[in-house]
Amino acid sequence: MTTGLAVFDTTVQETNAWLNQIEARLPPCGKQDAYQALRTVLHVLRDRLPQDAVLGLSAQLPMLVRGFFLEGWKPELALDIHDLADFADQVETRLPKGFPRAGQDVAQAVFAVLRQQLDPGEVSKLARMLPKGLRPVLLP
After folding, report:
1. Largest CA distance in the chain
2. Does residue 45 form part of some domain?
3. I want to staple 61 with a disulfide (CB 3.0 to 4.6 A). Which of 26, 66, 130, 137 is the partner?
4. What's the whole-model pTM score?
């Protein structure tokens, strides 16, 4: 099914490619679970980054992903996350009850896809805006 608008069809295809990669990294997750994983990790990341980093990252995302990345964002509320364990706890808390994978697995899978899909220079720049204890998840 296509929309007839190339820009919409392209963003749906790009988003599906991201979701397929996440799904492949998180068995037994399906497409809906992959969406929840991507959305949740991006929201926790967004809520930890400074405003300029959020806007910079959003510019790198497919248009559809950018929409749910920025959905509900309150720039004045920043999470106090210092390492992967803190990050994974936040992910675990925000995932739907009964999600088939642990928060740390979800975070690592989504970060792996971000590293694969985003420009390496942008990933490095983004990592530098995170606390030292969280940087390795973006720059393993």
Report:
1. 45
2. yes
3. 66
4. 0.94
What is the extent of the structural domain holding 17?
11-137
Q: Are 73 and 46 in contact (CB under 8 A)?
A: yes
What's the number of domains the chain is made of? 1
Supply φ then ψ for residue 136, to 5 degrees.
Answer: -60, -25
Kindly report the backbone phi and psi dihedral angles of residue 84, in degrees, each rounded to the nearest multiple of 5, phi listed first.
Answer: -60, -35
Amino acid present at 9 = D
What CATH number corresponds to the domain at position 57? 1.10.490.110
The confidence score (pLDDT) of residue 1 equals 65
Euclidean distance between CA atoms 35 and 18, whole angstroms: 9
Residue 2 placed within a domain: no
In Å, how far are 1, 10, 96, 113, 120 from 17, measured between CA atoms?
16, 11, 22, 10, 18
Of all helices (H) and strands (E), which one includes residue 136?
A: none
Check: CB of residue 5 under 8 Å from CB of residue 20.
Answer: no
Give SS3 for 35. helix
In a domain, 6, yes or no: no
Predicted pLDDT of residue 21? 98
